[in-house]
Every structure is written in structure tokens, then in C-alpha cells.
Amino acid sequence: MKAVILAAGKGTRLHPLTLSRPKHLVPIGGKPIIDYGLEALKNAGIKEVVMVVNYLAEHFKHYLGDGTRFGMKIEYVIQKQQNGTADATGCAESLVEGPFLLTYGDWLTSLEAISTVISAHEEEQPSVTMAVVPVQNPEHYGVVRVEDTKVKEIVEKPSRGRAPSNLANAGIYVFSLEIFDTIRQTTSSSRGELELTDSLSLLLKKGRKILAVPLQETDAFDVGLLWDLFPANCWVLQRAKLQTEGEIEDGANLIGPMILEKGSRIRSGTYIEGPAFIGKDSDIGPNCFIRSYTSIGQKVRIGNACEIKNSIIMDKTHIGHLSYIGDSLIGENCNLGAGTTIANYRFDGKPIKMNVKDKIQDTGRRKLGVVMGDNVKTGINVSFMPGTKIGPNSWIGPNVLVTRDVPADSKVFLKQNHVNKTAHANK
């Protein structure tokens, strides 16, 4: 059986991180999101994958290649216009010959989830088998009403309080080839797109059997919003196997499970609280506190007496001494001046809000710092208020207090008035 992975979206809800990479290549736990899906597919016995791509497609081809290093064969097909998930699925028609598994590239999926869906399809032989998972906020998902393991209704992002169940479409399917004819009969939704859920609804109207396979909440995880990256990072680190190949100096303290890759150096006086990930050739300390659920990429330098809490620090970023980074997402090749401080908590203790696609959204998180794109530079003693976003290639000058989002390619400096007085001015 082949697998089709939908990975054409622009990931605009993950700006500024996705201004320079597809969201499927955002790293968590030291690897891009797409890696975890490919590993689950391979371990379930799938060795041929069709990637449906569009936005920054060359990044996928450069990183994944033909799949050899993953022990798989990867083919690519371009969705010429981003016209919805049904249209994206239809793009793969010429590359599949029989029943195929389809999944979304921005979902974290376990081996058990993939294997369970495939086994159920092979046993029941329905037109479609789809995974469902319980969620706390069904209004954010495609919601499925199930009776006796059979799908009866699919409602895309129902209004609050109107969901027919708390079971969300988990983004894992096995389709028969009939799906392609059904896609050709699918009309545009209110969003002007061809939605895969509308194609499934057409199959239901035709009386076709769609089997629902319930998964545990921890079997499949959607990364659709910036703050989803924090629990996703936790999801990955909790499953990581202990690996300590780096150099650990005398006087460093490592508590709990963690991965220290080759070439990493943990200097004396540093305290690391697992689970955590430290990538190749990164240099931490001395006297740093790396708190649990932190992922630090390759060739990262964390200077003396810094504290990093529940954050993702991407490759080649330098964080100057005496800095605090809390509950934050920091892009590649950033350089943060000494004394950089990120506030991650409101005075009133209320959930932090963030601007997403020009709308203010409640993140539901009481702790959330900054999201910083690639190649950002800050001067000494820069401070950030909770929930701010900094676009790539921006410069923030010394002593600036950042209270609102900064667009890409910006330069923000503090204007000061100096009053010079001579030693005898008051005589």
C-alpha cells in the first residue's frame, strides 16, 4: 500500500516561522514535523510515499530527496493551485494503483495509529476508513458523528456548542480508488475550496460505508497553530529514547531523560531538567538552567547564566549571557544580545492572546513568550512582552521594550534624549 501525504499548504497560521519554511519542516524534538509521520509510515510497513506539495516545494525536495535516507521511495506531485484538500488528493491519482493511505503532513501520528487504521480497512473493506480522535475544542476541527463504528455525518468546524460530537477527523484515511470519481463530483465549499470532507459527505449520500476507527488522544496530534508546537514538542520528547553522546563537564547536572547529540558540550554549573533535546555541536553554559521540554537545535550557543524554559531554539542561534527565554519559539540563525528577557506571563494571570492572520486569538495558555522568525538580531537588554511575534531578518536595538508584533525586515531602535551637564553646572 502506498501513502499520500498532503503538504501543500502555506501554513499562514504559523507565521513568522513559515515565512521561510513549510510548516511541515518546522523542527520539534530536533527533527522536522514531517520526519515523525514518515517514520510512523515506514514502521507500519509502507515504503512508497507520494508527497503533494506546493508552497516552497523545493524545500521538501532538498530535505527529503527521493527518500533513500529514510529507507523509502518518495515521489512528488505539485498541486498547481491551493484549491483545498480534495483537489490536493486528486493530484495523486496517477501515482496510486489501489487502496492507499492518506494523511496530513502537519499531524503527528504514532505507528499504532497507522497500523490500526490499515488493519481495520483490510478487515472491513469499506469505501473509506478514517481515524477519529476526541478533542476538547471540536469547533476547530472537522467533527464526525459515529454510530456503531460507521460515520453518519461530518461537519467542518461547527460553531461553538453545535458540534454533533467531540470526535474530530484525525487526518488518517484509507481510500479506495472510488474517491477520485467522487472528488470530480465535489463542488466548492463556502471557502471556495474543494474540501475532502465534502467528498466524504457525497459518499455517505450514495450509501457508501465509511468506517470510523477511534484513536487515543495521544495517537494523533494536529499542529495547526503556533502554540500547538509546545504540546507537540512535549509529545515528541516524552517518546524519545535516552541518548547522551555529548561532552558533559564536571559540575554539570543532568536530571531525567534527554538526548545530547554528538559534539554537544554541557559546561560546568549547567543544570538540565529532562525531558530535553540538545542538538549536534551545540554549546551550553557555563551556569545555565535548561528546563524540561526544551529543544535546542544544532550549532546553538547558550551563554553564561541563561535560563531556557519550555522552548524551541532552532539551529545556529546564539543567546547571549544573562538572558531568559521562556515558553518561546526562536527561529534559525538568530543572535540575541546579552540580557535579552522574554516575559511569558500576564500580570492578571489571564490567557495570552496572539495575532493570527490579522485576528486576535485567545491561545488558552497562561504562559507564552515570543515567536521569532529566522535571522533576528537583538541588542543588549531587549525585553519582549508576552505573545509578541518578530518577523524574520529584523533588528531590535538595545534597551527596546517590544510590546507589539514586529513585521519582517524591520529595524526597531530606541530614541533617547541625552542631557549633558558639566561638573560645575550647579555652582
Whole-number mean pLDDT: 94
Biggest sheet, strands in spatial order?
A: 15-18-21-24-27-30-35-38-40
Regarding CATH, which class of the largest domain?
Answer: Alpha Beta
Helix fraction by DSSP (H/I, runs of at least 4): 10-25%
CATH superfamily of the largest domain: Spore Coat Polysaccharide Biosynthesis Protein SpsA, Chain A
Which structural class matches the secondary elements? alpha/beta
The number of E-state strands comes to: 40
CATH topology name of the largest domain, in short, is Spore Coat Polysaccharide Biosynthesis Protein SpsA, Chain A
Provide the CATH architecture of the largest domain: Alpha-Beta Complex
Residue share in β-strands: 25-35%
Please tell me how large the radius of gyration is: 24 Å
User: Could you name the ranges where pLDDT drops below 50 across 5 or more consecutive residues?
Assistant: none
Distance between the termini: 91 Å
Assign an overall shape.
Answer: globular
When the domains are counted, the total is 2
What is the gist of this entry?
This protein is α/β, with parallel strands linked by helices. Strand 32 and strand 33 (359-362) form a beta hairpin.
What does this structure look like?
This protein folds into two domains: 3-224, Alpha-Beta Complex (Spore Coat Polysaccharide Biosynthesis Protein SpsA, Chain A); 236-412, Hexapeptide repeat proteins (UDP N-Acetylglucosamine Acyltransferase, domain 1, 3 Solenoid). The chain is globular. It is built from seven helices and 40 strands. It is 15% helix and 31% strand. The model has no long low-confidence stretch (mean pLDDT 94). The chain has a nine-stranded parallel beta sheet with strand order 15-18-21-24-27-30-35-38-40, with no helix packed on it. With 427 residues, the protein is of the alpha/beta class. The termini are far apart.
